[in-house]
Amino acid sequence: MESTFNIHNLVRDNIKNITPYSSARDEYKDVSLIKMIFLDANENPFENGVNRYPDPQQMSVKRMLSNCKKIDEENILLGNGSDEVLDLIFRAFCEPNKDNVITLPPTYGMYSVLANINAVENRKILLSENFQPKVKKILDTVDAYTKIIFLCSPNNPTGNSFSEDVVEKLLNKFKGLIVLDEAYIDFSSKESWLRKIKKYPNLIITQTLSKAYGLAGIRLGVCYASQEIIRILNSIKPPYNVNELTQQRAVLRLQNRAEVENEISQLISERKRLKEELECCVSYIEKVYPSDGNFLLIKVDDANKRYNQLLEYGVVVRNRSTQPLCENCLRISVGILEENLRLIRALKAIQ
Ligand SMILES: *Cc1c(COP(=O)(O)O)cnc(C)c1O
User: Using CA atoms, how far apart are residues 226 and 116, in angstroms rounded to an integer?
Assistant: First the structure.
């Protein structure tokens, strides 16, 4: 695999030799000993904290991530949420009306939305009954135009992680790109695949600050991949895709690892408590699926009915019952202690 894989065979022709937009801040780096003045970007010069364009390469955020994840800055690309990162991947590698991708429902809805927006065929191969990828069926579906397989692990909405074996097989046998979405990895007992980026040149990992890091409102998604892949994505990203306020808040949060870790461990222990309580004490809950995320998928007697009853108690959950393999399933995010108590009270009240 390593010897034959060449990322440039996968890039769209129009992207291969693209000249990226060169912003004023890209051209000049403030490295001189003289105090520079910046009259190059037509900004308003009166300082207010955000009157300047943000760093298009987000170096202070990348430095923090690089330290904390033990990975080189050259292997990182940031986007306006992982949604932008995923869109960039489509646009770099998938030729509209020609190429195709493979997704594994039930899974995160954005892969399918982005495939549609980019006019890329989405070949859906359902997960198995125990929510694992069907490797043979996936590989049989691959053809010369299959560019990407999307894996979400831990998977949303099912909550489970994919077995290492299965991921490894796909990485070894598929000659296109594997996008592994690790949005929930911080809640998982399984290790991230970050360390395998050097070994697998076809592996792209996405993570986000929206979940465990508690920053959904700032929109910051992260992509980890080989330098070659990062270079290609960099050449097509909008220059100022991550704004200044987002960069500042991300740095502050990444400096506060202890607080993040503390919240994660509280959520994990709440998840466990919630699961036990739902299993023992609510009669119409038929199954609480194991979860490596900050949510639980439960199977009930009648999802629409229970969903509406919970609304009357002021509790909003996600009804996933229209998803394949998720008949009568609700997805419930783990809240803070008080919220979880209120959820349990509501669930019991509607028995
Ligand atoms: C929530 C979530 C994301 C996060 O997307 P952002 O755009 O970074 O907020 C990504 N992937 C999955 C599977 C998710 O559930």
Answer: 27
- Residue 36: how many other CB atoms lie within 10 Å: 12
Strand (E) or helix (H) holding 233: helix 227-236
Residues 146, 10 contacting (CB under 8 angstroms): no
Cα–ligand 1 centroid distance for 183 (angstroms): 6
Phi, psi for 299 (deg, rounded to 5): -105, 130
Residue nearest to atom 11 of ligand 1 (CA): 183
Show the tokens assigned to 96.
């509209």
Topology (CATH) of 258-349? Aspartate Aminotransferase, domain 1 (3.90.1150)
How many other CB atoms are there within 10 angstroms of residue 259's CB atom?
Answer: 12
C-alpha pair distances (Å), 33 with each of 29, 59, 184: 12, 20, 44
Q: Where are the domains of the chain?
A: 7-17+56-255, 258-349
In angstroms, the CA 162 to CA 152 distance is 8
152-191 pLDDT, tens digit each = 999 999 999 999 999 999 999 999 999 999 999 999 999 9
Residue 273, pLDDT above cutoff 90: yes
- Ligand 1 centroid–CA 152 distance in Å is 10
Ligand 1, atom 2, lies closest to the CA of 183
What tokens appear for 117 in the block?
């927006």
In this structure, the residue with its CA closest to atom 12 of ligand 1 is 183
Look up residue 168 and give its DSSP letter: H
Q: Is 82 in the pocket of ligand 1 (CB under 6 A)?
A: yes
